[in-house]
Structure formats: structure tokens, C-alpha cells
Amino acid sequence: MVRWQPGTSGRLQAAALELFASNGYEQTTAAEIAQSVGLTERTFFRHFSDKREVLFHGQELMVDAFLAGLVAAPDEATPMELVAAALESAAELFPDERRDHSRLRQSVIEQNPALQERERHKMSVLAAALGDTLRGRGITEPAATLAAESATTVFGVSFTQWIGAGEERSMVEIERTVLAELRNLTAARPAASPAARPAAKA
Amino acid sequence: MVRWQPGTSGRLQAAALELFASNGYEQTTAAEIAQSVGLTERTFFRHFSDKREVLFHGQELMVDAFLAGLVAAPDEATPMELVAAALESAAELFPDERRDHSRLRQSVIEQNPALQERERHKMSVLAAALGDTLRGRGITEPAATLAAESATTVFGVSFTQWIGAGEERSMVEIERTVLAELRNLTAARPAASPAARPAAKA
DNA sequence: CTAGGTGATGACAGCGGCTGACGTCGCGCG
DNA sequence: CGCGCGACGTCAGCCGCTGTCATCACCTAG
User: Quick one: A77 and A167 in the same domain?
Assistant: First the structure.
């Protein structure tokens, strides 16, 4: 009876992921996605600024999750402690139930350079937001930007492991390990010592 | 006498940068760029895979420069020493004479999100190449990826400073400072100490 | 000197992403 | 009851980008 049903963007996103996964990203036109849920191409572009965005919409939530970890941290926290806090907070967006969905989504992204570009861009936006907040807390340059970029790097590496085949550890758990590895890496003494090259065995 | 003149891609690149800077990126069509140097749109796309690429062509040289620093490094080098070596090597591509050209180019990129996406993508490709080489040297995951990403992060921050207004330090000089800052940042003791938050005054 | 190959380019047609303008319809509100 | 609003459809059109084929200078073999 209703002229149009609710949850339009959600249905478009689901349909797009399905079509991309089965027919390929470039082989799927925006009009096809729209028609598969009973809409027109014009409506698709009213919900998403461009075709790629249908896979990335909602990542502002991720920025908020990272920032939430920062505002909750104590004033005396060091930059690296803030990074850790942001990562812990963001990990809540990646519960085990979403792992399979993330795997499917990522498999689509990995098969198309244009989608990889958009993904990297989103990470940059995230890093920029983190950097702004860190500067707002009195952290000076270039420390603020370095810390922000390190956070997204650790997140990226952790996410890759999280959706890896057979991986069962939780996102937080992986993030802590990777962050420790980063600390270990940069803190390594440049002086010559036996077996210094392989930083860790695992 | 010749049917076509040499250096076609170079002339297209120069014309594109000029037009982008004066009229804006989106307002400039590929056909306009081509016609401004006496060619057709079709020829433009034979030289560059897409419109954005006219601003980024040649960045494979940067990958080579980074990698050259790695192959020249001694076998016992730690990951961070390798990062430092790669950065020093890459700095040779950014002599003071190119600073103004880089500034103009960057001002165009900063005004268009699509160009920023492409730039980030190129940095990712660079990081991936660095990661591969580091793994080839026996560095394990996630250390290899973390080191590679850190290298591009330090490079990015350094480049931003290098083209900053009034900046006169050389690229190598800036890179060394930023890299030291990254070491200092991640190595900072998590334990509470007076005035620990602002890592550095400058 | 001629025939044929090569490589960069032009000309043309066409698809798909994306946009602006405008009209339609159901809904809630005064 | 009339009105505006908001989501959507329709249409026309630009531009990025591609496949296909023809063209023309140059070069090489015979």
C-alpha cells in the first residue's frame, strides 16, 4: 500500500554486494542494482554519491568509534596510549558475527583497484580526524599525525589478519598484538646485536 | 616535417597541470588538454589510463628509488634501519629545484578528492612494494608491513613539511627529523612522568 | 625503386557514470 | 480540505573511457 518501502539504502547496499560478488563490480551497472530492488538509477545516485560509495557508506560510524576511544582516555595519556584506546574502542564495531560479512565485502574490494582507492581514502579521512583530535588535546606536529597514521596502519594490518582464513582471535586481541609489534619494531636498538634482524619469531 | 612531435606525454602532462591549476580539475576535460597540445582525446587516453593519471605518471620511479635504498643496505640492518635507508634514497627525487613544481602540483591535488584518492593509492602501492622486499629479506609479518607503512607515513609527513610555506630544509634533513620523532613517539614509556604529553616543543 | 610492416595518431560510434530540471504521488499538518 | 514536503520517476545531456578501423610517415627487405 505504501508508495515506497523503508530501508532503501540498506536494500541497495545488500543487493549491490550480492551482484558485485556474483557478477563482478565493473560488470554490474548502477541501473541493475537499482532495478534489482525495484528502483531507478536516479534514485540510486540520490542515496549514494557514486557507485563505489554503496560499499563504503556508514564508515563515519568507524570514525566516531575511534574518536570515542580518545575522549574516554585520561588527560595524561601519551600519544601511543591514545592510539591504543582508539583501537580498543573501534574493535567493538567488529564482533565475530560480522567476520563473514567482512570477508565477502573485502573479497569484492580486493578484486577492483577503484574500490581499493576508495578504501584507502576512507582510512585517510579517518587518520585526518584522529590527527585533528590529537592536536586538539595538545599533541604537537608531527607527533599527532604520526600517531594518527600509526593507528590506522595498526588497524589495517589487524583487520587483514582478522578476516584471514582460519583466524579465530577477536579483533581487540589482534590489535593489541600488532600494536605491541609496532612498539617493538621502532624501539629496536639500532646497535649491532646477534640475530637482530628477525625481530620476532612468530 | 614529422607527422608527430616527440615527448607527447610530457607535453600533455605540462598542459594538464597548467589547465588544472587555472581552470580547476573537474572543469577541464580530457579533450581540452589534448587539443591544447594539438592532439585528440583518444590519444590522451592512449598515453594515460585515465584522466587523473596524467598527474601521477612516473611514480614508478619513486618505488624504484625506495627499493634502491633497500638493496644497498647491509644484510644485518634492522627493519627501521632499512626504512631509514629507503627514505634517504627516495629523497634524491626531491631536490630543492623541484620544490615549486611540487607545490603547484600538490595545490591542484588538494582541491580535488578524486586526486587525493589516487595519491593515496600510489602510496599504498609503494608500501606494498616495500613490504614485499622486506619479506624477501626475511622480515616476518606483521613487522614487514608495519615497517613499510611506517616508511610511507614518514615520507608523507616529510613531504608535507618540505613543500610547506617558507620551508628551506632539504628533504633528507626533514625525513631524518620525522623518523626520529616516530621512534621517540612509539618508544615513549607508558609510565607516568611529568610533562609526558607534549612529546616535543618544536 | 617498390612492397610490405610498424607505430603513433585521427575519426567515429557507443556504453556507463553522473547530474540538473521537472513532474508525480502519498503522507501529514493546519 | 488544501497545502507543502519528501521520496521517487522521467528525460535529456555531458563527460570519462573504450573498441574498431582508417590514415600516414617512416623503415626495412628484396
Answer: yes
Residue A140 falls within a domain, yes or no? yes
Determine whether the distance from the CB of B118 to the nearest atom of strand D is below 7 Å.
no
What are the distances in angstroms from CA A197 to CA A11, A169, A190, B86, B143? 50, 27, 10, 16, 11
- Domain with A88, as residue range(s), is 60-186
Q: Which residues, given as ranges, of chain B have pLDDT below 50? A: 1, 191-202
B64 & B33 share domain? no
Judge whether residue A31 contacts strand D, using its CB and a 7 Å cut-off: no
Find the residue in A nearest to B138 (Cα).
Answer: A198
Task: Please report the number of interchain residue pairs, chain A to chain B, with beta-carbon separation below 8 angstroms.
Answer: 140
Tens-digit pLDDT profile for residues A115-135: 999 999 999 999 999 999 999
Q: Are A94 and A102 within 8 A, CB to CB?
A: yes
The verdict on A51 and A70 lying in the same domain is no
Does residue A13 share a domain with residue A96?
A: no
DSSP-derived letter for residue A170 is -
A191 found inside a domain: no
pTM attached to this predicted model: 0.88
CB proximity list for B121: less than 8 A, separation 6 or greater: A113, A116, A117, A120
Which chain A residues 72-131 have CB under 7 A to strand D?
none
- Based on the fold, state whether residues B44 and B66 are members of the same structural domain: no
Strand C lies under 7 A from the Cβ of residue A43: no
Spell out the residues 6+ positions from residue A157 whose beta carbon is closer than 8 angstroms to its own. Answer: A178, B142, B145, B146, B149
- Residue B183 to residue A186, Cβ atoms within 8 A: yes
CB proximity list for B110: less than 8 A, separation 6 or greater = B116
The pLDDT tens digits of the residues spanning A46-80 come to 999 999 999 999 888 999 999 999 999 998 899 99
Question: How many domains would you assign to chain A?
Answer: 2
